[in-house]
Amino acid sequence: MNVTDSATPKPETPQSGTAPRGGLDTATLDLPGWQHVYSGKVRDLYIPANAALTERFGQDCVLVVASDRISAYDHVLASEIPDKGRILTQLSLWWFEQLGVAHHVLASTVDGGVPAAVEGRAMICKKLDMFPVECIARGYLTGSGLLEYRDSGTVCSIPLPAGLVDGSRLEEAIFTPSAKAEVGEHDENITYDAVVGLVGADVAARLRELTLEIYTKAEEIARGRGIILADTKVEFGVDAATGVITLGDEVLTPDSSRFWDAVTYQPGQAQPSFDKQYVRDWLTSAESGWDKASDTPPPALPADVVARTRSRYVEAYEKLTGRTFA
């Protein structure tokens, strides 16, 4: 495995013809003491550029800045969702506090060392030696799992009872990993045995245990706040200093999880979700005029789609945390 940042999103080939984005350009900020080294679909990464920061946080740290960019169908869109980066960062930080597992965050406030220009949307994190596995827990049947189930009665080769429908709650949450894909490719669902082949039996068992532990605790917390956590993706790496398997990346946000409203939940149909559903729906509508099978980049989003998407992210944050998003 390569030593990489624990929050590094997979690289994306820039889209030609993409219109300039408004708002804060998190890739070109002048952050004293920090040097920009990478831009992903959503996040921008900076490393210490002076001895004082290296001495304070260690050589193996990175400033992770969440932009307001949004991606869909393997494209970064020309439009941004105002405050999205702040919402996802603050929600991740809240979940890190709830979960009680080792995680990668070293600091998240200006007093802690985060530059004021990116306050609220940035974290100083440990670099981790990341495992090449997307760790996914499913408590409900939907998405790619539903497609496999309809074909074979299984999800990632795990047999499930007959008669389940879209949105069915599973008797027990299941671990359904995927392999991290190369640039521009989709992640591929894999079996648990394949995970063992990638990382070894002991690590595979620990990844499964941690993933299901996180899902089970988060599902209970979310359900108590009127939100159904259908599934979630988490990523882990090894902290080189301690040898501990550590939670990295974002955690339990609308970009890494399916959140449904418990009030409107109805098995047997697609559930409205607290994520970029409005974006996907508009892009695949006749109104957008875009063919997702083409090589052309998606069009800019209408103002009402941007506003509704932002509202959905804010609603998820406020329902889960009980806090008002300022």
Q: What would your notes on this structure say?
A:
The structure is a single chain. This protein is an alpha+beta fold and 326 residues long. The protein has two domains: 126 residues, 2-Layer Sandwich (Phosphorylase Kinase, domain 1), CATH 3.30.200.20; 147 residues, D-amino Acid Aminotransferase, Chain A, domain 1, CATH 3.30.470.20. It has seven helices and 17 strands. The strands form three sheets. Strands 1, 2, 3, 4, 7, 8, 9, 12, 13, 14, 15, 16 and 17 form a 13-stranded antiparallel sheet that branches. The protein is globular. The N terminus is likely disordered.
Question: What features would you highlight for this structure?
Answer:
two-stranded antiparallel ribbon, 2 domains, 326 residues, disordered N terminus, 13-stranded antiparallel β-sheet, alpha+beta, D-amino Acid Aminotransferase, Chain A, domain 1, globular
Euclidean distance between termini CA atoms: 40 Å
Taking pLDDT < 50 over at least 5 consecutive residues as the criterion, the unreliable ranges are 1-22
Q: Give the total of domains.
A: 2
Tell me the CATH topology of the largest domain: D-amino Acid Aminotransferase, Chain A, domain 1
Structure classification: alpha+beta
Number of strand segments: 17
What portion of residues belong to β-strands?
A: 25-35%
Shape: globular
Q: Mean pLDDT, nearest integer?
A: 90
The biggest sheet, with number of strands, parallel, antiparallel or mixed sense and barrel status, is: 13 strands, antiparallel
CATH C-level label of the largest domain: Alpha Beta
From the alpha-carbon coordinates, what is the Rg to the nearest angstrom? 19 Å
CATH superfamily of the largest domain: ATP-grasp fold, B domain
Number of continuous helical runs = 7
CATH architecture of the largest domain: 2-Layer Sandwich
Order of helices and strands: EEEHEEEHEEEHEEEEEHHEEEHH
- Helix content estimate: 25-40%
